[in-house]
């Protein structure tokens, strides 16, 4: 399986170069940071462990006087409705916090956080918002009368609690071993391209990489525009052929990588729904049919523009998937025009909600243009949800818990404002051009652990 990573490598490299080529030529913003220095110990002590998260959720439910209803949507290693087991153990619970029911006459927002286990602030920000909603008041009551808001916080609970060297070391990936025979496939079938076979993670130390040794998947590539996709619904040979059909990257005479073959087991296609986590989230999505789906991530550091040295607070995106044809059925998917319009309005509201004088809150960029049908946002946008990607500044491995108060409000404030404007209908008067005019991603500030991919 080690061999796989060599194939994945060039793809990732090519993608991140494409994202950063303009930024790399640009001067760095001042000040550079404030990420922690090499070898400096990171403290995660103010972040919630899984246990602490669960008790926080239960506490919010108790204090909400019926406004919030807490359920377990499933477990990280077992998917209840079709009893799909990925490991021996049951795994960790994925909680569903419901503010409001599934009334089709209401507007509906679904929010997920920590699909990448190391993106801790996303969950902390969601908890802040839940507390605000649970506390109630006139405005909150008016919102919840018209809008139901469901949260799936920390949808990668195993990556979130990952350990390295006896310490808590949150990782991007899930914990799960590729076991083709368990899926009825030939033993030598290649893993999905987003499999992290050696259990490695980027880091500030050890040349920017640690190997914690637990294999797993990038859950945010395991989704599929065909929300009902199951490996077991196809013949073993059909699935094995698809999995063994990976991208082939070659170098031209100038040493530039190019895609010599576009395989079905690649980011151009949907994922294989091999994680219980992605199936659980998708099942909630199918049941709820949200108007708006918001997924919260972390990213690196940018300055806003040539003239404006403010550090970018968040990057946002309303559009992460283009037209898609299912390679198995030939079924075509595309993002509906009105769905995209509302998505732009949602992102525009988020942008406006953080404009506070000349503060760094308002320094917002658009996320780089991508076409990723295997992401939760991409797959759900192709199934009629208006989407917003929020990318918080900094990674847990770089920022630790610095600036956490500010970072949390770059999650809770925009989402609250979106809910408010959905409730009173004023979101439909927002000019989608506000979104179009948000500055493009650029002026990246170098940082060894920064990722170019959400
Ligand atoms: Zn992420």
TrEMBL record:
- Where does the source fall among the domains of life? Bacteria
Q: Name one GO biological process term.
A: proteolysis
All copies of the Peptidase M14 domain together span: 47-359
Q: Which UniProt keywords apply?
A: Hydrolase, Metal-binding, Metalloprotease, Protease, Signal, Zinc
Q: Where is the signal peptide?
A: 1-25
Necessary cofactors: Zn(2+)
> Which Pfam families is this protein grouped with?
Peptidase_M14 (PF00246)
Query: What protein family does this chain belong to?
Result: Belongs to the peptidase M14 family.
Q: What is this protein called?
A: Peptidase M14 domain-containing protein
Q: Please report the organism this UniProt entry assigns to the protein.
A: Exobacillus caeni
């Amino acid at each position: 399986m080690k061999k796989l990573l060599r194939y994945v490598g060039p793809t990732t490299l090519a993608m991140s170069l494409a994202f950063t080529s303009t930024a790399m030529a640009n001067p760095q913003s001042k000040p550079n940071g404030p990420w922690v220095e090499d070898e400096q110990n990171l403290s995660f002590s103010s972040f919630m462990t899984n246990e602490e998260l669960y008790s926080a959720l239960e506490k919010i439910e108790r204090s909400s006087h019926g406004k919030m209803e807490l359920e377990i949507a499933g477990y990280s290693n077992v998917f209840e409705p079709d009893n799909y087991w990925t490991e021996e153990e049951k795994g960790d619970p994925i909680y569903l916090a419901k503010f409001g029911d599934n009334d089709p006459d209401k507007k509906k927002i679904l929010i997920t956080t920590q699909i990448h286990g190391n993106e801790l602030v996303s969950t902390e920000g969601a908890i802040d918002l839940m507390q605000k909603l649970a506390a109630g008041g006139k405005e909150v009551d008016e919102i919840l009368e018209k809008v139901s808001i469901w949260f799936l916080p920390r949808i990668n609970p195993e990556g979130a609690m990952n350990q390295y060297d006896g310490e808590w070391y949150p990782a991007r990936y899930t914990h799960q071993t590729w076991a083709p025979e368990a899926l009825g496939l030939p033993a030598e079938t290649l893993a999905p391209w987003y499999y992290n076979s050696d259990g490695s993670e980027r880091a500030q130390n050890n040349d920017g990489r640690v190997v914690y040794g637990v294999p797993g998947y990038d859950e945010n590539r395991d989704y599929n525009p065909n929300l009902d996709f199951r490996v077991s619904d196809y013949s073993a040979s059909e699935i094995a052929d698809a999995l063994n059909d990976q991208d082939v990257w070659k170098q031209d005479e100038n040493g530039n990588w190019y895609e010599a073959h576009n395989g079905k087991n690649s980011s151009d296609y949907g994922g294989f729904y091999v994680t219980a986590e992605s199936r659980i989230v998708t099942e909630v999505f199918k049941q709820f049919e949200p108007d708006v789906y918001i997924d919260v991530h972390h990213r690196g550091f940018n300055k806003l523009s040539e003239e404006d040295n403010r550090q970018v607070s968040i990057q946002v995106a309303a559009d992460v998937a283009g037209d898609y044809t299912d390679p198995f059925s030939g079924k075509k998917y595309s993002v509906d025009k009105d769905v995209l319009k509302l998505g732009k309005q949602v992102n525009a509201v988020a942008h406006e909600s953080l404009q506070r004088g000349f503060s760094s809150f308002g320094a917002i960029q658009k996320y780089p243009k991508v076409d990723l049908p295997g992401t939760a946002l991409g797959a759900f946008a192709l199934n009629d949800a208006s989407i917003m990607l929020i990318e918080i500044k900094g990674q847990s491995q770089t920022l630790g818990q610095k600036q956490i108060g500010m970072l949390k409000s770059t999650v809770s404030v925009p989402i609250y404002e979106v809910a408010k404007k959905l409730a009173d209908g004023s979101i439909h008067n927002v000019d989608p051009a506000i979104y179009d005019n948000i500055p493009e991603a650029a002026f990246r500030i170098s940082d060894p652990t920064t990722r170019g991919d959400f």
